[in-house]
Sequence to fold (133 residues):
Amino acid sequence: MRRRGLGVAAGLGAVLLAAGCGTGGVAAGHPDVANGKKLFTGVAQCAACHTLADAGTAGTIGPNLDNAFRADRQQGFSQNAIENVVLDQIRLGSGSVTGRTPMPAGLVKGQDALDVAAYVASVAGTGPAASAP
Fold:
């Protein structure tokens, strides 16, 4: 009986996770990709840490976003799925990273976060493969 209860709890946890509970929810609204690119390369300072071919950036502190999402695209993940992953990272940050600079949570918020996530999701992993730093 106890084993069944654990299975039900695990299943419920998976459903809540899939629904976006606890992460701020899924991206909704009408993102402005042009504003997202402007924020990525400017005010938000994403470009200082991340490589993204479309933005012409070569940051080496954070992950190379083209490399990070290339396999997802090849496996058929939707742009919306990638957008939600990026949005969660913007909202939550990377937390403590041993020997590296962590990405702070909430560098951009609200509509600006949606715009940056939509921009990254629209271009990450679409260009030629780059070597990892």
About this structure: The longest strand covers residues 51-52. The beta strands are 51-52, 57-58. Residues 1-23 have pLDDT under 50 and may be disordered. The two ends are 51 Å apart (CA to CA).
